[in-house]
Amino acid sequence: MRFLVLKKETLLFFLAIGVVLASISAWFMLKAGDSAVFNHQSEKDTREIHMVTVEFKTKMKNGKELEVYRWDPGSISLKQGEKVNLFISGINGEKHPFYIEGTKIKGTVKKGEETVVPLQFDKAGTYRIICEAHSDRSHNGPMIADIVVN
User: Fold this and answer.
1) The dihedral sign for the CA sequence 132, 137, 142, 143
2) How is the chain classified by DSSP, letter by letter?
3) Is the Cβ–Cβ distance between 55 and 68 less than 8 Å?
4) pLDDT bracket for residue 77 (50, 70, 90)
5) Before 142, cis peptide (omega within 30)?
6) Cα–Cα–Cα angle for 94, 98, 104, nearest 5°?
7) Taking the CB of the first residue and of the last residue of the chain, which one, N or C, has fewer CB atoms within 10 A?
8) Longest dimension (CA), the chain
9) pLDDT at position 121 over 60
10) Which of these, 31, 147, 3, 21, lies nearest to 88 by C-alpha position?
């Protein structure tokens, strides 16, 4: 009859190895769905540009309040043919329906949400993002930003 004799040190060694392997396995299983942020940019050479909706408010000497809305930044530059995702975050104002002049692009930016607008212009020129809710001074505007394509 044969017996397996384990010393205390041998048993602790195998227990430690088991804990290490279980920890490594758990770490890989929990991280399986994550992707590195810096690799996000290489999505077929698509550049990301971030824009926000901004409100400026002041009170006049006569007590009247003035407010105006704008896109920030007010101007962005692209290269002709460049692929861009424009991320617009709604910070101020409940909603901003917009269109991009000279294109068929339309959308709405809502407060607390982010709207993603894919852009690629084949012609050089200046294209304006115009908010339909704030299109002129009588509507707390004009809320216009320029997309300059070189």
Assistant:
1) negative
2) -------HHHHHHHHHHHHHHHHHHHHHHHTTT---GGGGGGTTT-EEEEEEEEEEEEE-TTS-EEEEEEEESSEEEE-TT--EEEEEEB-SSSEEEEEETTSS-EEEEEBT-EEEEEE--SS-EEEEEEESTT-SGGGT---EEEEEE-
3) yes
4) very high
5) yes
6) 150
7) N
8) 105
9) yes
10) 147
What CA–CA distance (Å, rounded) separates 52 from 55?
A: 10
Per-residue confidence band for 43, with pLDDT thresholds at 50, 70 and 90: low
- Return the structure tokens found at 150: 């070189």
Strands, sheet with 95-100, edge to edge from the N-terminal-most edge strand: 75-78, 144-149, 125-131, 95-100, 106-110
Name the token pair of 92.
Answer: 């101020």
Domains and CATH numbers, the chain: 39-149 (2.60.40.420)
Q: With 90 as the cut, is the pLDDT of residue 85 above it?
A: yes
